[in-house]
Write a structure and sequence with these properties.
Blueprint: H1 4-18, H2 25-41, H3 46-60, H4 63-66, H5 71-86, E1 103-107, H6 114-126, E2 133-136, H7 144-155, E3 159-160, H8 168-182, E4 187-190, H9 199-212, E5 216-222, H10 227-240, E6 244-248, H11 257-266, E7 270-274, E8 282-284, H12 287-294, H13 300-310, H14 313-324, H15 330-342, H16 346-351, H17 358-362, H18 367-381, H19 385-389, H20 396-406, H21 410-430, H22 433-445
Parallel strand pairs: 1-4, 1-5, 2-3, 2-4, 5-6, 6-7
Antiparallel strand pairs: 7-8
């Protein structure tokens, strides 16, 4: 994940300070020096680092920190607050025009991930009961139009295209007319990029902007490109007046710090972050949550958002009732596994929890664990409906049949049954006495 190295270094700085009952001015200056180096090594813009360190130092050297009973925690809070400020303060939602359709123009360099980001954004908006229309305006890159059409089929969203022989400005104008006639809103223009910024590219984009009057001009920035990302953002903003940024490839193993500089350089908010390869891996960018994640404090709220988006409320209520009545069976267990897989990889999920060691995450999404998940599904699906409802009837001969049917070993079947039995015991304890009262309180809080 991007920012992983930066996060590790910042957490290392705070870990050194945690063991000290009091902090001296010297301790804080040394910590500031290490934080500065960590930010620079992560490719954060030099001017922004300098300003950031000055702000943190000024607050950290105040009496509130030096005289605090938990000075290291106070320092973490200051760094967290300033980091949040640096990348945007608050989340910034898409703006929609009162005059339909709203036009969203996607721009950026070739290879930044514009076409994929277009599809991800369309899927995101379709989940909000909107009817987006994706428009193939990139007539230069080989197979760009085809790529968008394939992605459109995958997410079941319409794509407007006029081939590669039509002028992109004409395509954009005709797409808006089509959207008005067919009730599509918003219109998302997937424009062309180049390997570098040139007058021809900017001239074409300016013409599309003039003819379609977009409400949003979103710059797709490749988080892996280092300081080039900052220069690109600055140029696009100066010439097109972008309204926001989408960070792509945040799941890549890169320094990623340049992406943290984009907001300060352009003055425009980061609106979305692409956090995985799947088309539903697009998140509204919350600066406070990202800062918290970088500092190893977790991101519970984003995990809750993902869960709410994927889990059906009715199914959740039925599951809760089954747990309380101790009727949770292997069918329910299999259904929950499939739901959890929708949330993303296990390392993504664990990475949102506070206090999880980053090194542990590297071992979570191993090929062995992936196979284990496949085996569990195969074992349960090889059981009869009666066996899933009542695993206690699964004797030796049934285990042999299930193992053969699932392509696994009897030991694997035994291990799954033991784990499930342990889970049932845990649920039984949870639904009794004080735990039941706690469950009821949590239900009222939802």
């Amino acid at each position: 994940m991007a920012f992983e190295s930066l996060g590790d270094k910042l957490q290392g700085v705070f870990k050194k300070l945690r063991g000290k009952g009091k902090l001296t001015e010297s301790d804080i200056k040394e910590a500031m020096r290490e934080i500065k180096l960590a930010l620079l090594e992560a490719d954060v813009n030099f001017k922004i680092v300098k300003e950031f360190i000055n702000k943190v130092s000024e607050k950290a050297l105040g009496a509130e920190v030096l005289e605090s009973l938990t000075p290291s925690q106070q320092l973490v809070k200051i760094v967290n607050d300033e980091l949040t400020e640096m990348i945007g303060s608050t989340a910034s939602a898409l703006q929609f025009s009162q005059k339909t359709p709203t036009v969203i123009m996607m721009c950026g360099l070739q290879g930044a991930g514009k076409t994929t980001a277009t599809a991800k954004l369309a899927l995101h908006l379709s989940k909000q009961s909107r009817r987006p229309l994706m428009v193939a305006c990139d007539v230069y890159r080989p197979a760009a139009v085809k790529q968008l059409e394939v992605l459109g089929k995958q997410i079941n969203q319409p794509v407007f295209s006029m081939g590669t022989d039509t002028d992109p400005v004409t395509i954009a104008k005709e797409a808006v007319k089509y959207a008005i006639q067919h009730g599509n809103n918003p219109v998302i223009l997937d424009t062309a990029g180049r390997l570098h910024i040139d007058e021809e590219l900017m001239g074409e984009l300016a013409n599309i902007k003039r003819e379609t009057d977009p409400t949003e001009i979103l710059l797709v920035v490749d988080s892996m490109t280092g300081q080039d990302a900052v220069n690109v953002a600055k140029t696009f903003n100066e010439q097109l007046e972008i309204t926001g940024v989408i960070l792509s490839k945040l799941d890549g193993d890169t320094r990623g710090g340049a992406a943290l500089s984009v907001k300060q350089v352009t003055g425009k908010p980061i609106k979305f972050a692409s956090v995985g390869e799947k088309l539903n891996d697009l998140e509204l960018f919350h600066p406070d949550r990202m800062a918290s994640r970088i500092l190893g404090m977790g991101d519970i709220l984003s995990l809750v958002d993902k869960a709410q988006a994927e889990f059906d409320e009715k199914s959740a209520a039925e599951l809760e009732a089954k747990i309380r009545k101790q009727q949770f069976d292997l069918d329910d267990f299999l259904a929950q596994l499939k739901q959890i897989k929708k949330l993303g990889s296990f390392s993504q999920i664990l990475g949102m929890l506070p206090g999880v060691d980053r090194k542990m995450l590297d071992a979570v999404d191993t090929e062995e664990n992936a196979k284990r998940m496949v085996h569990i599904e195969a074992i349960i699906q090889s059981m009869t409906p009666q066996e899933r409802r009542n695993p206690k009837i699964i004797a030796a001969n049934r285990k042999i049949r299930i193992a053969k049917g699932s392509g696994t070993r009897v030991q694997d079947v035994n291990q799954l049954l033991k784990q499930f039995a342990d889970m049932q015991k845990m649920m039984k304890q949870f639904t009794g006495g004080k735990q039941q009262k706690m469950l009821n309180r949590l239900r009222k809080m939802r």
